[in-house]
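**User:** Hello, beginner here. Are you able to go through the protein record under this note? It all follows right here:
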Amino acid sequence: MTEYQSVIQKGPATQAEERRERAVIVGVDRPGLEWPLESSLAELERLADTAGADVVASTTQRLDAPNPRTFVGSGKAEEIAELARTTEADLVIFDDELTPSQQANLEKVMDKSVKVIDRTALILDIFALHATSKEGRLQVRLAQNQYLYPRLRGMWAHLASNRMGGGVGSRFGEGESQLEVDRRMVRKRITSIRRELARLADVRSLQRESRYGSGMFKVALAGYTNAGKSSLINRLTGADVLSYDKLFATLDSTTRKFELPEGREITVTDTVGFIQKLPTTLVEAFKSTLDEITGADLILHVVDASSAEFEGQIDAVCDVLEQIGAESIATIEVFNKCDLLDAETLAGLRRRFPAAQFVSARTGEGTEALVAAIAAAASAADTKLDVVIPYQRGDLVSLAHERCHIISEAHEGDGTHIQMLVGAAWASIFEPFAIHAS
């Protein structure tokens, strides 16, 4: 089994676990950037740390447009090579996606022991580290192959010169035994992965249909990576979803049942986090996972209230929701980590976002109000019915308690008299027992 295959099938066992690599990060300040360059580079440093590298230096350049040959100017490229040399760096990470030719030209400038990767490769690398389920590993593998495909010639020449050597940015293939791989074989691999993902997507679709057919109200959590989605679902449902203070700590969606105060059961699903400049290959590869969002009745857009860049993070999440066609689904913004804010800052956020919920998944503050907002959304499209259910139909009384909002209940001579709010999926079942005003 090659190192590449072992990463996909068993999870990575790389140099990052034995020795943290040293990295130089590079950013280009261009007109019209959505994020301040300093903030974007700070996030890039966190990504590098998550992947197993220590940032030992950073450098920037202001340009009107990227250099088509080396992304940065040729003089800057030489300066970066010297910076990597003096800091004994193992790799150089660019904050923007490099074209295959730009990457190849930059590699020629650097010492042979230094790898050149971009933000996309770094994110793919982290996904390879954190994918645990079979579907998650296949989704990452698909995105990796789609990224590698246009870079095959440069990648194999790069490997032949023994520059990759494993570690950050290379968990998707070291390639010493892969030099014979050509475009046809990669296309075949992509086709094979897509076929297997389609099969798994059918299984997931059946599971979703089962939940949808149950008539349960479906809530999906979406948000920027590390906004605290997993912590919030743990707080709401008592689940044990993995949650770390790391970027992309969880990739696989998790669905849990949750009982609202009125007794109605709903489902709450945690999904993969988003990030600015999220590679389009990842959005495509994780489509079946993201379908959990598009099939929801309500989206909880979880925002890290303690982040200085929360507005940019909100925009990044909205962009992805638009890409997957979920922009029209009812959404509640949930500002998490409010325990980290002072009273004045929190009050200012409440004034700016009056329709939002403000919670702390860590302390539980604000979760009761959030649950009330979810319950109100779940009941918004319900029909009010006044029914008398015969005593021999105890199954319908149980169903009413599980799936509907009970307003009042009384036991009368001819059956159980219930006033309730009923969802569209159940209205036809209870309608025959309705009391109609004369």
